[in-house]
Amino acid sequence: MRDEPDVLATLLAGQDPAADAPSAGGSAVDHLPPASRAWGEIDTRSQTPRWGMLVDTERCIGCWSCAVVCKSENDVALGMWWNRILTDGDDLDTPSVDAHGHPQMEWLPLACQHCDDAPCEKVCPTAATYTNDEGIVLVDADKCIGCRYCMAACPYGVRVFNWGEPAKAPGVEEGMVPARPAGTVEKCSLCVHRIAENQQPSCVVSCPAQARIFGDLNDDDSHINQVLRDRGGDQLLEQKGTQPKVRYLPPRRRRSL
Amino acid sequence: MATDRPAPTPPTATPPPDVQVADPTRRRLLAALGAGAGVAAVSGSTVAARATPAQASTGEDALDVDRVVRTTCSPNCTGSCGQLAFVRDDKVVKIQQAADFPDEVYNPRGCMKGLSFHHNIHGADRIQTPLIRTGDRGSGDFREASWDEVLDRIADDFRRIGDTYGYETIHVFGQVPGSGYVHKGANYRACAALGMSHGTSFDFNGDLPMGMPITFGVQNAEHETKDWANSRFLLIVGSNPLDTRIPDAHFLFDAADRGARLVVVDPTFSATAAKADSWLQIRPGTDAALALGMTHVVLDEGLADLGFIRTYTDGALLVRQDTGRRLRADELADVDDRGQTGRRADFDEIYAVWDERTGRPVALGTERLGMPDGVEAALEGSYTVTLSDGRSIDVAPAWSHVTAELERWSPQQAEQVTGVPADLIVRAARAYATESPAAILMGGGSNHWFHGDQIGRSYALLATVTGNIGRSGGGFSVYVGQYKVRLDTSPWWHAGENRAPIVPSIYFLRGPSETMHPDVPYPEHGFKALFCTFANMFVQSPDLNRLYETLDDLELIVVVDPILTETAKYADIVLPATTWYEKTDLTATPVHPFVQLQQPAIPPVAESRDELWMWQQIVRRIDATLAEEYFVPHTAEDAIEMMLAAGDTPDGPTHGMTLDRLREGPVRLNVPDPDVPFLAQIEQLEPFPPRSLPSPLEATQRFVPTGRIEFYKEEDRFIESDQTVPTHLEPNDDGVHDPDRFPLILLSPHSKWRIHSTYANNPWLQEIHGDRPRVMLHPRDAQARGIRDGDEIDVFNGRGQLGAWAHVTEAARPGSATLHEGWWPRFFRSGKGVNELTTSEVNPIHEVHHVANTWAPSTPWKDCRCEVRRA
Amino acid sequence: MTIIATPSPTASSRRPWPRLAWYAVLGAGLLLGLFSFGYQWASGLTVTGLTNTVTWGLYIVVFMFLVGISAGGLIVVAGSELIGSHRLESLNVLAVIVSGTAIAAAAVSIIPDLGRPEMAWQMIVSPQPMSPLVWDMAVITIYLAIAAIDLWILTRPWPMPRALRVMAMVSLPVAVLVHSITAWIFGFLVARPFWNTAILAPLFISSALVSGTALVLVIAWIVHRVTAWEPPPHVFGDLGRLLAWFVAVDFFLLSAELITAYTSQTDYHLAPLHMLLTGRLAPVFWSQILLGVLVPFVVYAVPRLRARIPLLVGAATLSILGVFAKRVDILMPGMYDPQVSMAPGIPAGRPDQGFIIDELYVPTWVEYGVVVGIAAFAGALITIGVRRYVLPRPEQS
Ligand SMILES: Nc1nc2c(c(=O)[nH]1)N[C@H]1C(S)=C(S)[C@@H](COP(=O)(O)OP(=O)(O)OC[C@H]3O[C@@H](n4cnc5c(=O)[nH]c(N)nc54)[C@H](O)[C@@H]3O)O[C@H]1N2
Ligand SMILES: Nc1nc2c(c(=O)[nH]1)N[C@H]1C(S)=C(S)[C@@H](COP(=O)(O)OP(=O)(O)OC[C@H]3O[C@@H](n4cnc5c(=O)[nH]c(N)nc54)[C@H](O)[C@@H]3O)O[C@H]1N2
Ligand code: SF4
Ligand code: SF4
Ligand code: SF4
Ligand code: SF4
Ligand code: SF4
Ligand SMILES: [Mo]
After folding, report:
1. Stretches in chain A below the pLDDT threshold 70
2. What is the mean pLDDT of residues B596-600?
3. C343 CA: distance to closest CA in chain B (Å)
4. Which string of b and e fits B599-609 if b means at least 16 CB within 10 Å?
5. Is there a domain that residue C8 lies in?
6. What are the pLDDT digits (tens) for C197-218?
7. Of A220, B15, B731, C242, which residue has the fewest beta carbons closer than 10 angstroms?
8. CATH number of the domain enclosing C318
């Protein structure tokens, strides 16, 4: 037993964050510090927004920040990813070698493309997969029977299935939305719950390379439309006719010495 | 026990060993219920679901959090990224970048590791209570103990060891300070108060770029990373910013957007090489030859800025041909001493240059740079001068020694050594010299060599010859480690007048070397105890088998860590630390000039406590008066205010900075914008070096006695080893391991997926890149050994052996084996990790002067030969 | 119209042990199936060998196979009815029983494939009209009704030739439709090159004919052997001759598809082809071609071989297995070849598995157990049907 408990008590008082922190509920967005909140805000939106995303593969450094933050934003279980970064090479972060013997490597972040003509939606027997008024392709877990037809139909392989109860690392909890039950399909929701609060999707605000642009494709003034006008934007597997609202900018031309 | 605060939350039961499955009923209910009340009742928490207009029908209603706290991610990483912790039920449930840097180009700083740190906070490897060893060291057998018990025991042992051998035999190893000036500072303060020896980090990490103190007299000096965007040409050598500077990598593309060219020098096809305009696949350890070859071309083609050499470097200073030492003005019988003869410090000497106009030597002081008016100082040639004793001797400008060395480094010769084609060297040199401003970014890959000092000196030469020093968009920046002390920490790190004695940790590992500098306060009785905190020392140190041998002499090993690391397993006592989401601290980094707070987002997990508290408790038990004076009255906030106040002078680093402003978000240091080093030298002709905190200026001024950028070193050891000017020397391990028997160079760069060993156990990151240490081998090397991709292999040399797996890829340079550092031993098939093989050899040049972390032996991680065979 | 040959009243009661043993086997199969399904329902599909790459497996193969059989059986009966041939008339009831059983079993086999079988009613309350799965559900229900009505008509003591003709006219297109729609479940998917081809529906029908006819043949023979039922001796040869044509057409269509894919010489088409010809599915593919097509074809086509009934039955069994293998060969290349197949691959969907770039699907015991249960269910239906409608009722005797 030691003395001086009073000194220690004062000493430790400063260490308890719960002591003076607000403990009221409220959405995560409401709690954001003003600067962070401003950073995440959607630039502009029209009367009838149609949300889209643009990924600059030149700027993408394959860091998976967007993929990881998506998991904690959306409580995506272990073994599941709504968003992942593909390496256009031999293996993860490994180059392929072109005809001249030069190694090459690029990254392709891939999540739901929010197809305007979404094959997953067309095949879903229960209309669990649907497109909302703002062009976002969503899955209503309450209606999903888990037939996985949509997974077979999606050319991009971005849907994942809850084969069992969502698995979590011991002790860890996460998520700004509830997890989906076993036996249902899930995928990128374009962070629809954030858009509702005028915040851009998590992967966009968290990309340290600023390789992602999000915005209203129906608003001429949106940043995404400006860049699409200036630099174009490719669709993945364009020939499939799925009309993705996620577009990609190609890598820059390299200048040899 | 009465004195310790009861844990704010009941200690959580040890989590189940395997994967935990979320409670299905709760989740289904959550999904089904739209309104908050029912859910809150079900979960017994503040979780509540709210319907939002756009998705009322989706069932995807946002969940509430209790609070969002702004803090700073602070592993041993230069990122220093502002993060928001989203907290629910006192658990961090999401981490996202704060993106609140007032300089918008820095937003959003962060990476996938920082964003998944809640798995480390709440994960299975988190230490819950203090532990006392019950089995053999390393067995991992511990029993849980109370804080009182462990603190008493540590205090008793320290007192006993202190009384018997002296407190200086206790080695406190605490890693780089940038990620927490308060709690890491508490280590220094405790050492200062009790007289324990503090270890080193910057040199021990091999990060200390010895070329910098040798050439510029500074510990290091890098441009803030946003300045990359101002470059027209980026020469990236031995640095892999795409993997190791994830939050800053985009500045490279910002530069490219504005038309800059990116050239990457790397033996491996790194991620950064993949983004480059050109990739020069260099033979490992030969960067000096490349830099010299490029400088040769620059001079050859008349692209050099010789005026810059005269003004800012020691190039014009005359060197005696007989002794190899610089000519002092007072040695001369006759010297022209009009003009500049002031001294910057009273230990400085007056040197001499040769004025071609008058054909006479002119005295040159150290007070300011440049040349006296009207003097046309010679850079080449040989001259005869008369000494005051009447003798005539030959002297030559230092620069002529440099150019004589450069003569040898024709592009063809450089190709011979580096393997980079001569025509590429020529074109790279031309582009570098003409596309201006041009920046050199150097990293650990070039620095972590026995002769890394020569590599640094050679690139410094290239940058200086082209006038790129002290220019925005230019510079020679070595990006390594979270080493930098950016504030005046002295009121907190010192205990009154007392300072911690600092012993480079390499001597802890190896014992004193024969060539050790006499100023090193190596304890007479060696070391008897180790207090390791903020470090995974027994994984991350070089030459591990040697380190493990020394442990037998230690009577006590204490390890402080939030995570049960391999190092912790070897401890006699393990103290559970809080993470940076559970305490208050102050951080800064070399890569951007913002000071930030760590602020606790959640109460300490289980029984964990912060380091300041631990020291308060330990010191109090050893010496109540000392504690009363230096520890007990101070909270982390007090410490911060002490440091801020000390730097709050008009020129001080923390001018106008207050704790309250820091609570709101990052505050920029009082530095130029963009933060470019050496501006005062280049623009105001102030002598080199600027001050390197925390050392006093006088300590580092002695490194460059001329007050100039020095390409000629006259200290005996430089002369004896023929290293007076920048030159290339072959890797040191070639002399230890016969290249025929150990034909592969073992490179151990830093992994994208970890910060050293931190995050190695993070389940998300493991999902991405797997959990097997894979050694990258070129197909040719693999084939010659009958190894296929994925095979089990042994990697070995005279120092150790390791069981890993093969990754056969064209990314590897033939003749090299690459195994990223930081894997925990538990992931290998056998062995203690890559550092069983690395070397701890000390370069005597690094012992010519001594200022800990500033001019001290730097570890040569990459200077390492090995062989690989199929297991 | 004659329904059945004269039964021997004592045939089934004479040897009770084999019958009881058969019931025991069926019962055990059903129990295993129920247990496996129950276990799967409790734990989720995580106990199957499926992953996010291979999302459909054994259950769907069985489903495709059973739909094929059902369509095949009925088409043969209805076909001969429409062209006015009465040579196979004696098999009508058996064929309808087989078809009805198969379609019922097909409907059942889709249940264990659902992640949430308890939510299957959503398909009825919230059907999405664009989905081929909804069409399939509808057409399978209709088809099941047709089989029931057919059976009812056929088993009236009085002949109803007009009704039979009408039913044939209805059931033939429905049978074709059932199979086409099942084919289109796959064929409409732009995501899967190997499935997304116009030939898929004809191909499904041709192999349906093979498997359906072959199964009728085999079951007719078994019923004939284990009971006193005596079909006219020529029916086996007739079915064999039909099978020769069906197998030939089926093989032609398959070759047409493979050759088209091959000549395209684009990776897109070649990748699945290589998987079949030389890749991991080659063993299944080549044994299907050799044992499932060539060997039986020789038996069917050569009159001397065809005349040896056991040989013919053996060939028919091979044909059935061959068609099953073909279902595997159609499903798996589509699954194994995701369009975006770069490293590190697709998240497996379970902890500790990370990403999978090159998935090898192996069904687990649970899936086999469930399939055994479905087989037992089908066996039980056929047994009941045969006992009730093919053999004379015990009380009638
Ligand atoms: N993700 C991540 N980021 C980190 C860290 C981490 O552990 N993980 N650690 C932080 C710390 S403390 C440090 S010191 C830095 C270190 O980070 P960097 O400075 O980037 O150092 P390394 O990763 O060791 O090596 C960089 C590159 O040098 C190459 N290289 C190896 N040998 C040679 C050579 O002889 N010449 C040349 N030109 N290149 C060579 C390697 O192939 C590698 O691609 O990263 C910091 N950032
Ligand atoms: N082979 C090889 N080895 C190398 C290198 C190499 O290039 N090759 N690079 C070297 C370099 S550059 C460096 S900088 C070193 C880095 O070496 P270390 O800094 O020792 O490596 P880390 O894995 O970052 O270890 C940090 C430890 O601090 C713990 N920690 C985190 N937060 C806290 C806290 O708040 N309190 C306490 N007490 N502990 C905390 C972490 O859990 C972790 O165990 O490694 C070196 N080792
Ligand atoms: S966060 Fe940005 S840079 Fe990183 S992988 Fe995602 S898109 Fe690429
Ligand atoms: S990418 Fe796939 S899941 Fe997303 S809308 Fe398109 S088809 Fe559907
Ligand atoms: S799995 Fe769910 S979302 Fe997908 S098609 Fe089936 S019912 Fe629709
Ligand atoms: S938009 Fe949201 S849900 Fe979609 S990938 Fe990004 S973070 Fe994930
Ligand atoms: S690990 Fe480093 S780069 Fe990543 S978020 Fe933390 S400080 Fe930033
Ligand atoms: Mo470092």
Report:
1. 1-26
2. 97
3. 10
4. bbbbbbbbbbb
5. no
6. 999 999 999 999 999 999 999 9
7. A220
8. 1.20.1630.10
